[in-house]
Each structure stands twice: as C-alpha cells, then as structure tokens.
Amino acid sequence: MPGLDRSELVSELSTRSAADIRTVDAVLNALAQVAIETIAEGVLLPGIGELKLSQSPEREIRIPTGQTVIQPGRPELAFEPDSWIRSVLLGNVSVVDSPREPVPPKSLPELRLNPYSDTERAEPSTATSKTKIGGAPDWIQLPEVPTCCGQQMYFYGQFDSSIGEPYDLVDAGMLYVFVCEHCSRPHASIQYY
C-alpha cells in the first residue's frame, strides 16, 4: 500500500488490529518519541527493522584555491529491515506463500559450570551453583523471555550469584543472558531470590 499518509496508516492499522483509532494514533506518537529519545543506541522495531543514527567519516576536499580542508562528518540515518521483511521486499519470499509465523528459538545443549574458590590452585568450591550455559532458564520468578527481530531470543546461559561474596548481586540473584538468532543482539536480565 504505497503512499499512505498518516491518517490512512492509522486507519489501516486500526482495522487490521481491531484497535481503536485513538489508541493506534497514541501508540504511533509514543513510538516516535521513544525513537527520538533512544536513537543514539539504535531503535529496534520488532518485526520491522532497526533505525540507527551514525556519523559519516571526515573527508578531505580540495577547494578552488587549491587548499585541502577537512569536512567534518555529518549525522546519517540508516534503516536495516528485519530479515523476513527484507526477503519479502526483495521478492525472495511471498507474503501469501510464507506468512510470518513465530519460529521457536534455537536451544543449546545444557552445560553446567562449577564455581571455583579464590585459591591460587582454583580448586572446585563446595558451594552449589545453578550457573550454566544452554538448556532452559531456571527462573526464580515468572519467565521473562525477551524478543528481538519479531521473535523470541534464545537462552544462552545464566549466572548464579548465590555462591557468596564477592559474587552476590544485591540480595543474591540470577543473571540471565539471551541472544537474538537473527541479528546477534544480546540481552541480559536479573531476577532475585
């Protein structure tokens, strides 16, 4: 649907999502505000792509007098479409032939890691730990699986801080690490015992 203006886009989104037009308009306004406030880190639009702000490199230019001057870099905006949308736009996949369905995140085999004491010989500690790579997260509270590129991120590992000082995170907790299978963006979150 090329050439949609804002009111047509809001109306189309309202129809497709069964959401009130005012709600859709408010969400678009909020999205624009978040994008402006966080553009320095990049703005991920799940299932659509990522908007980034970068600085073009400085370059030397020769002016009519024959002198060379340095032209400073300028801010540039770049948009990197989501892999599925890129495939559709390049004609590699048809939206009708390949509707977007959630793909389960990949799973790594579980590898338990044992903490070590602070001795020079690094003897195994007697403390028990839930630190591991792969497998499924051992949630302390409710599951919090993050999403990226329109899909759930896969669980990479967890680090248990309940083995004692100096590794405690505040009141002892678990640091969970996830990775996006599409763009390799990492995400970490903490839950406390």
Automatic annotation (TrEMBL):
<dbReference type="InterPro" id="IPR010992">
    <property type="entry name" value="IHF-like_DNA-bd_dom_sf"/>
</dbReference>
<feature type="region of interest" description="Disordered">
    <location>
        <begin position="99"/>
        <end position="133"/>
    </location>
</feature>
<comment type="similarity">
    <text>Belongs to the bacterial histone-like protein family.</text>
</comment>
<dbReference type="InterPro" id="IPR000119">
    <property type="entry name" value="Hist_DNA-bd"/>
</dbReference>
<dbReference type="GO" id="GO:0030527">
    <property type="term" value="F:structural constituent of chromatin"/>
</dbReference>
<dbReference type="GO" id="GO:0003677">
    <property type="term" value="F:DNA binding"/>
</dbReference>
<protein>
    <recommendedName>
        <fullName>Bacterial DNA-binding protein</fullName>
    </recommendedName>
</protein>
<keyword id="KW-0238">DNA-binding</keyword>
<dbReference type="Pfam" id="PF00216">
    <property type="entry name" value="Bac_DNA_binding"/>
</dbReference>
